[in-house]
Structures are given as structure tokens and as C-alpha cells.
Amino acid sequence: MRILSFTLAALALSVPVTAAEAPAKVTVTLANFSFTPSDLHLHAGQPVTIHFTNSGSGGHDFTAPEFFAAATMDAANRARVEGAKGRVALGKGESSDVTLTPKAGTYKAHCSHFMHSSLGMTGKVVVD
User: Fold this and answer.
1) Which partner for 68 in 29, 42, 47, 86 could form a disulfide, CB atoms 3.0-4.6 Å apart?
2) Are the CB atoms for 24 and 46 separated by under 8 Å?
């Protein structure tokens, strides 16, 4: 009986413990008057970490209040999108990660800096 107990204990210790699956990761690059990709495609109900990076020569933001309001996220991530403002603001060379679970829909995105959206800094988030 001891051998069986020892064997079962050894077997239990040798089985790897699987951590919760990490969220998918996508990158959105903010540049001078563009987002890359301009259309971000995500899956409803599936956690994702969006890595925002600013490669432009000055400050930019990714503003999508309806998208961020509809998504589920913890308080720390909600603070990164400035709560109800629904934007990720970055200075030159900065980056930030936001982890969330998106809700189905199509949402507009833009840079809220003066004239940036009229110069082409717009996009959308499509969640299916």
C-alpha cells in the first residue's frame, strides 16, 4: 500500500500545473497621423492585452470611449484608459498595455489632439 501511495504522490507532483491561459496580445502603433493597424479586429469575450506604442514625433492618444466603456477590465486597466474618457495617452516614445475583455460591436477610434483625426489619425475596433 505504501508503494501505491508513494507512486500516486510522485505522479501528482510530476503533472505540470497549467496556469490560466494568458490573454492574446496585439500591438497598436500610434505614429504621426495614423494608427497601425487602423482597424483592430478582436474576439468578443476573449481577454486581450493591447500594447499601445507611440512612434510619432510628439504626443498622441488612442481615444475610443464606447469601446473601453463596453469592455470588462479591472480598476488598474480602467485607470490606464482614463476611466470614462476612454483614451490611452502617450508621449513620444512611450508605451502602455491595457488588458480587457471586449464586447461585440464596432467602435470608432481617433486621436483627440487638435487636428490629428482630420489629418487621418482615425480607426475602428471591430469585435466579433
Assistant:
1) 86
2) yes
